[in-house]
């Protein structure tokens, strides 16, 4: 796809917080200039001082700021940027934005807009991977009428999951135990999908109870080659949001994981997928594996992969976007475990806002901290509650977990509540330590089972 | 007796699901708030009738702010 080499010199980082900082760091290392953007709520954030220039966005809400395509494109023009890195979240998977960037003659640092559109449509993405021979769990296409839905649900089998086709992040998903509740669940999912994603399409998929969430890091050159950078195990979640991620995946059939990693790379190569992507799968307790979705961006948990492979994923993203060659598959070494420190109560999981009166991330051997915050900043209600990611590596899984635990204990935060206590409980949990994880582990732990 | 339904978080009102006059049971979801990209359901603390709803969608709300009043 990128047959000729593109030269870029100034990157607009269309994001905030930890990922803005992360992208700016790699750009700096590569000798590229950076342009940051910020909402009034982020005027005191440290990434602004680290960028070459920074431009204000009109308001504090996501729509006025980091989702504001018109303002971002205007800043790209004014600042003389020749490339845009979207980070994760916000506009990272918005095909319209990516296309608008490309149409202005700028380089979008991510997959081509067509991949963002196709993978963003969950029903289309499922069909595409099934067609390529990647396993999927039984499901329906887009639901059109309720009578058919009842028949389809019966043939798929209960419990069944109702999912919005335009969704993500677990919003609007619901598990239906039997046919009596199907109507209501579909209506509710349609309503939520409509207000959250602007389209009310929903589909059905067999619900896998207590699955493991295993995902594969993919890199492609858009010209028929793709590699995988192994798996990340991300089963430790709350409200469908990841809390702890690690690689390699513990306590699982390694051959089964390796086979699906190879298959994921082969499918992406065959599709001529480009830049970066993550193929998310579910592993059922009986060993069945099914496609969940393909994320067309760098992930929050990308540092786990960087720790075990030694690569810089942002750098590879930039090189691939500029027509560079796909690197050889790196070997992996050791173990890496990441914990997401959120501004939320450890017991109630309620988000917590306030001023960071004290904020001191630890500096420890074998530990990497990614944060978008510094002492004195106000944590408001407008954006997600992630304060920091703490990633620890080690020659053994036990060593990585031990280092992560020490880092969490050493991380000093006051002014907002954090989930540090919950993270530490998980890291000391017998099932977690034994590699017996699934997506319900946090709920069981919180209910004291 | 009147019972205040208060916000547990600082955020914004995303959706109001019930109207004044609705009969509620303890645990029924009255509205959904949004804070830090999370949906926070606001449940009726007691059974009764919704006396009033004090906010509307997109309103900013503070922790402990009264969102609704239930008559039991």
Task: List the SSEs and their pairings.
The complex is a heterodimer of chains A (about 450) and B (about 70).
Chain A: E1 10-13, H1 17-29, E2 33-38, H2 47-50, E3 53-56, H3 69-79, E4 83-85, H4 95-103, E5 107-108, H5 113-120, H6 122-131, H7 146-156, E6 160-164, E7 174-176, H8 182-197, E8 202-206, E9 212-221, E10 226-238, E11 241-247, H9 254-271, E12 274-283, E13 289-295, H10 302-309, H11 313-321, E14 335-342, E15 354-355, E16 358-360, E17 367-371, E18 378-379, E19 386-394, H12 397-410, E20 412-414, H13 420-427, H14 430-433, H15 441-446
Parallel strand pairs in A: 1-2, 1-4, 2-3, 4-5
Antiparallel strand pairs in A: 6-7, 6-8, 9-10, 9-12, 10-11, 11-14, 12-13, 14-19, 15-18, 16-20, 17-19
Chain B: E1 2-6, E2 11-16, E3 23-24, E4 29-35, E5 38-43, E6 48-53, E7 60-61, E8 66-71
Antiparallel strand pairs in B: 1-8, 2-4, 2-7, 3-6, 4-5, 6-8
What does this structure look like?
The complex is a heterodimer of chains A (449) and B (72). Chain A is an alpha+beta fold and 449 residues long. Chain A has 3 domains: 100 residues, Rossmann fold (3-Layer(aba) Sandwich), CATH 3.40.50; 69 residues, Dna Ligase, domain 1, CATH 3.30.1490; 235 residues, 2-Layer Sandwich (D-amino Acid Aminotransferase, Chain A, domain 1). Chain A is built from 15 helices and 20 strands. In chain A, strands 13-12-9-10-11-14-19-17 form an 8-stranded antiparallel β-sheet, sandwiched between helices. In chain A, strands 3-2-1-4-5 form a 5-stranded parallel β-sheet, with helices on both faces. The radius of gyration of chain A is 21 Å and the shape is globular. With 72 residues, chain B is mostly beta strands. Chain B has one domain: OB fold (Dihydrolipoamide Acetyltransferase, E2P) (Beta Barrel), CATH 2.40.50. Helix content of chain B is 0%, strand content 56%. Chain B contains no helices and 8 strands. In chain B, the strands form 2 sheets. A 4-stranded antiparallel β-sheet of chain B has the order 1-8-6-3, with no helix packed on it. In chain B, strands 5-4-2-7 form a 4-stranded antiparallel β-sheet, with no helix packed on it. Chain B is globular. Chain B starts with a strand and ends with a strand. Classes of the chains: A alpha+beta (449), B mainly beta (72). Chains A and B meet through loops of A and strand 2 and strand 5 of B.
